[in-house]
Every structure is written in C-alpha cells, then in structure tokens.
Amino acid sequence: MNRIKTLNEYSESYAKSIQNRDAFWSEIAHSFQWRKPWSSVCEGSMEAGSYSWFNAGELNITENLLDKHLTEKGNQVALIWEPNEPSVDFRKFTYNELHNEVCLVAEMLRSMGVRKGDRVCIYMSMVPELVFSVLACARIGAVHSVIFGGFSAKSIADRVDDAEADFVITMDGGLRGNKTIPLKAVVDEALTSTRKIKNVLVYNYLNLPTEKKEIDVDWNELKARVLSNNDYIKPGETMQSEDPLFILYTSGSTGKPKGVVHSTAGYMVWTAYTFLNVFQYQEGDIHFCTADIGWITGHSYLIYGPLLNGSTSLMFEGIPTFPDAGRFWDIVAKHKVSIFYTAPTAIRSLMSAGDEFLEGKNLTSLRILGSVGEPINEEAWNWYNEKIGKGHCPIVDTFWQTETGGIMISSLAGVTPSKPVFATLPLPGVQPVLLNEQGQEILENETTGNLCFAQPWPGMIRTTYGDHARCVMNYFSAYPGYYFTGDGAYRDSNGMYRLTGRVDDVLNVSGHRIGTAEVENAINHTPGVIESAVVGYPHDIKGQGIFAFVICDPHHHLEDHEQIQAITKTVSEQIGAIAKPDKIVLVSGLPKTRSGKIMRRILRKIAEGEFDAIGDTTTLLDPSVVQEIMAKAK
Ligand code: PRX
User: Fold this and answer.
1) Chain segment 549-604, per-residue pLDDT in tens
2) Is it the case that residue 71 has pLDDT exceeding 90?
3) Which of 149, 167, 265, 394 has a beta carbon 3.0–4.6 Å from 54's, enabling a disulfide?
C-alpha cells in the first residue's frame, strides 16, 4: 500500500476514489494477504443500509497484522506496554512474541470450546492480555465485544444478553491511577441476571481475592496446560470478508446502546489505509494512542491500524494525571514516541494543570499530533501545537465515529492543509455532503448543515447486532440515499469541514458518547423519582457536562441532597461513573408543550445559564415552571 505523500497525490487519489471507487479499493486491497481473492469489490445500497465489500474473499485479519510481518519484522517491537505505576517495569513484545501470545490465547479459547462466530465479551483493563484476547478472538473467528472497564454490572449484563455471548474474558482487577477496579466482582454481579454463560476466563493480575465460580477458568492454569502441549502455533480460521469481526456498543438517541457490527475485510482495509495516510506512518515510528481499547479509537488506532502497518504501538495502562499531569510527556520521552494521538478532554485537562508539568520533558521525538472524539477548541489546539508540538508537528483533527470504523475527515499530517479547529478534508473514498432539514443537499460553501456521507466506504457499519431495522432507522432513513452521522458541520470557502456538534439527543462527555435517554432511564430507576430530563451544557474540561432536571415524589421522604446522592448512585449502577450527571436540580415540573413533549431547548438554555435567551414560553402547558427551574438552577 502506497502512502500519499503530496497534496497532488491526495487530489488524484481522492478523484479516483470517487470516480472509480471499486478500482481504487481493489488496488489497495491487493496489498493484503488473502486466502481467496474477492469476486466483487462493493455491493449494496444506502436505502437498505447494507453493503458488502470484497465479496467472496477469504482471509484472516490476524495473519495480516502478525504472520505477514514475521519474516521481515519478527524482531521489531509490535507492542509496548507502559504500566500505571511509573516504578513498574514496562513490557514489550516483538512481532514474533505477539504472534506467539496471540496463538497461545487463541488455543486457550479453542480448548474452552470457543468457535468461529461465537460472541466473546471482554471486560478487562489496559493490560497486554487484553490485546492478546482481542486478537485471539479474531484469530479463531470469534466475534469480540470489548466492554469499557468503567461500565457497571448492569451495562455488562445488557451487552452480554444483546450480543448473545457465551463467553466472557475478564481479570481479577485493574489499575487506573490510584484506583483498583474489581473487574471480576463486577462481572460476577452482571452474570447473576444474564443468559447462561458457558465460561468466564479469568486472568489473575493483582492477586485480588475473587470468588471462584463453577464456570470460571483460570487463565494461568489453562495457559500452562496449552503450553505443555506445545502445538498451539496454528494458522487463523478462514474468514469470509463479510464475517463479523467485532461488536462494539455505542450510545444513540434511544435508551438502549446499539451493538455496532464491523466486518473483517472492509474494516481491515479501512483502518490500515487511514492509519498509514492520516498519521503518515513511517518505518520506525512509535505510535502512542491514549484511548482505551473499550472504545473504537483503541480498536482501530491502538490495535488494528498500527499493527496492520507493522508499526510499534504503545499502550498505556493508566490515566494522564497519575502520578501527575506530566505522565504522558514522561512516556513520550521514555519511549521516544513519534506519533501521539489523544482526545481534547485530555489536552484541556493537562493544559489546565499548568505548564510546569512540561518542564524538563524531552518531546523532541514527536513528529505528529492527533486529536479525536470531540471538537477541539482553539485554545486547546494552540496549546497542543505550541507546547507539545513546539510549532513543528502537524496536528490531525480526526473526525469519525464508532460506526465509521476509521477516520473519515482529517488532514493527512503535513501533506494536506490543516486549519485550527477544522477536521478539514475527507479521506479518499469519503464523500461528505451537508443536507438541510428538508433533506436537500446544500451545494454552496460557508454554510452549515447535517453531515452525511453519500458513498459507502469499506469500514462502514454493517448492522446493529440482532436488529438490522434499527441500523437502517438510525443511519440510513433520516436522509434516504445517505448515511447520516448525527453531527452538524460547517464547510468553509475552501471546502474544509468543521464539526459543530451532535444534532440529536446524544451528548459527548469527555469524548464519550452518552445518550440523554439512556441517562434519563437510569435516573428514573431511583426510588422516589417520577420523571427526568437530561441535557448537555458546555464544560471547560469535558467539552460537555450532563445536567439533569428531576421531578421527585413529594411523599418520598428524603432531603434534597440525599435524593441527589441516590440519583448519582443509581446512574453509576445502571450505566457507570462516566454517565454521572455533573448537576442535578430537583424541580416540581418540566417545561412541556400541551401535547406533553418536553421542550429541551428551554432546558438547554437554562443549563447554559442563558436565562435571557429562553425565548417564547407561551406554548407551554404551564409557563410558570420555567421561573421555578431557573431559580433552582442558578
Ligand atoms: O460527535 C462526533 C464526535 O464523536 C462522535 C462519535 O463518537 P464515538 O462513536 O464514540 O467515536 C469517537 C471516536 C472516533 C461523533 O459523532 N467526534 C468524533 N471526532 C470528532 C468529533 N467531533 C468533532 N471533531 C472530531 N474530530
């Protein structure tokens, strides 16, 4: 696969990808290892919300990211693991070693009875065994579904049931800063209310006391058994291009997260291609993606994209502020990181910690900086550029989504023009359009609209697990003939895109997608709560904060602060700590229209503190509630 090296090459590639899509992708796909070539490049329709890529092709993705590199790069480091505690030794795995580990875990899974097509939920913290587990699933054709380690037992249970998973992989506990997270205990609790699971594979990391259940399989014992057989290095399962590779749950505007399904070949081609070009990967680069593997960024740009390109990928167990806000920069210096990819929330939080944490840190190895997951504000962009990049590292502001599999709109570092706070131009193969509320394409520039994609791309969502109608409804029916992102965007006079935020009821808190309906559902589980409405508001560090307006039963005798505590606790139990509201106001009514619809516009203005911009309230059933809410929200 050739890297795009000049603006001219980008323009040529882009034009070809639109005018002659199939030939364009066919050429790129040839640089991978196939067991059987594809018979057609792309089939399907936007109306059906269904596409297939590289049809009838056969391959195994792990052979493309491991076996393929062994001859030339067997001794090159594939994965560096930097621990939570700086005093603990880091670990590194060459391509040979990673191949060995993945084959070993693959055989462990096989011996447990995991078969091609089985769904395996993985609830682990950021340790190398998580990467081995993900790739071991892919090796044997099992569908991995990684659940972020911050989700609650209830969230795990929902995902295990929705994915119809038969197996879970977890560990006794994980470390994040100064916290120990009892992962196995959370899984135990989750599994008391789910379908029957065949086995839970438990990696013992911290020697925490855990309950040993009948279905539990001890990682180390099984590993020793498989090792003693000494014949675990086996080829991967033969997979069809369209066989599902993984399910990853993400929030939408309804209460229930969706299981986004990605398929094997299209995702492989897309993540490899976008990684190479956006980050301008070169031999010898050390790529540090700070995202957790529980999110799509960790899947695509910590594991799949870098390893498919034979890069060295660095994974970090901890958090940016432990033991202090200089930790990322220590890691950059220690491992001579050249590509650094993080989220605006992390940038803002490190910026606000103060520049003293940068003193004495050697950042000269950095070549390229990336941003992902939420709009980056100008102040954070400038700080990142000046203080981290020292003005000479191109910043790629990468726009994409769980559903898109990989980066859709971004500059190619140092090759195509960049512009602060703009994601800029589409990747080859991506055809963004702005639509107005009537669904008409807006052709002129210097305007905003709803961001859609007019052409399919290899890494696009294939379905939502178990419910294709939901996939069609969510992404392909608002604007027939287009994929709808749910985001608004502005296009400048040069055709560059700036994302302006979600246009649906989805919040983006610290770069994590959370549906307002999901939080409301959780709040409503609290004893004493009658009804709630959740909106987002601008938050200095998190980008958006969660503001909840809650009506409680006056006969439920709790003091306000107790009721608020109870609500917070319920949200943590139902979803996880990431969804805890930043502000909760107890009110006696919500601004509703006569037909009973909550006027969120009014609540948003109140949450933003823009009391003068509330606008017309005369259509409300009871306009007086607005005064009460404003008084309480002050
Ligand atoms: O609103 C957009 C925002 O994050 C959403 C996707 O979230 P998720 O599926 O969790 O994936 C995050 C990591 C790819 C989008 O709908 N978003 C993502 N990247 C950007 C962004 N908003 C502005 N600028 C970005 N670069």
Assistant:
1) 999 998 988 999 999 999 999 999 999 999 999 999 999 999 998 888 899 999 99
2) yes
3) 265
- Ligand 1 geometric centre to CA of 422 (Å): 13
Mutate-to-test residue for ligand 1 from 369, 399, 497, highest number of ligand atoms within 8 A of CB: 399
| 375 Cβ closer than 6 Å to some ligand 1 atom | yes
Spatial separation of the C-alpha atoms in residues 295 and 305, rounded to whole Å: 14
Contacts made by residues 226-233, CB under 8 angstroms, sequence distance 24+: 226/104, 226/107, 226/108, 226/111, 227/104, 229/107, 232/103, 232/104, 232/106, 232/107, 233/99, 233/100, 233/103
The Cα–Cα gap between 464 and 249 comes to: 9
552 alpha carbon, distance to own chain's centre: 34
Q: Which residue among 376, 513, 542, 544 has the greatest number of ligand 1 atoms within 8 angstroms of its CB, and so is best to mutate?
A: 513
Distance CA 166, CA 121 (A): 8
Please tell me if the CB atom of residue 402 comes closer than 6 angstroms to any atom of ligand 1: yes
230 has a pLDDT exceeding 90: no
Identity of residue 162: D
Which residues contact residue 78 at a Cβ distance below 8 angstroms, ignoring those fewer than 6 apart? Answer: 66, 69, 93, 94, 95, 97, 98, 307, 312, 313
Q: Ligand 1 pocket test: pick from 275, 299, 374, 512 the residue with the most ligand atoms within 8 Å of its Cβ.
A: 374
CATH number of the domain at 509-633, out of 3.40.190.10, 3.30.300.30, 1.10.10.1800, 3.40.50.150? 3.30.300.30
β-pair partners for 144: 120, 246
pTM of the complete model: 0.96
**Cβ neighbours of residue 105 under 8 Å, at least 6 residues apart?**
129, 132, 133, 135, 136, 223
Q: Return the SS3 of 593.
A: strand
Q: Is 373 in the pocket of ligand 1 (CB under 6 A)?
A: yes
For residue 163, what pLDDT band results from cuts at 50, 70 and 90? Answer: very high
Burial 474-484 (b: 16+ CB within 10 A, else e): bbbebbeebbb
Give the whole-angstrom CA distance, residue 84 versus residue 20. Answer: 48
Instruction: Give 289-300 as a DSSP string.
Output: E-S-TTSHHHII
Separation of 400 CA from ligand 1 center, angstroms? 5
Question: Is residue 443 classed as helix, strand or coil in its secondary structure?
Answer: coil
Query: How far is the centre of ligand 1, averaged over its atoms, from the C-alpha of 373 (Å)?
Result: 4
- Sign, CA dihedral 12-14-20-21, equals positive
Check pocket membership of 485 for ligand 1, CB cut-off 6 A: yes
Report how far residue 588's alpha carbon sits from residue 625's, in angstroms, rounded to the nearest whole number. 8
216 Cβ closer than 6 Å to some ligand 1 atom: no
CB atoms within 10 A of CB 362: 12
**Any atom of ligand 1 within 6 Å of the Cβ of 342:** no
Strands 483-491 and 286-289: unpaired
Alpha-carbon span 224 to 232, nearest angstrom: 12
CA angle in degrees (0–180, nearest 5) for 370-376-380: 90
Give the mean pLDDT of the chain.
Answer: 96
Would you kindly state where each structural domain of the chain is located, as residue ranges? 509-633
Q: Residues 107-143: pLDDT tens digits?
A: 999 999 999 999 999 999 999 999 999 999 999 999 9
User: Which amino acid, 619?
Assistant: T
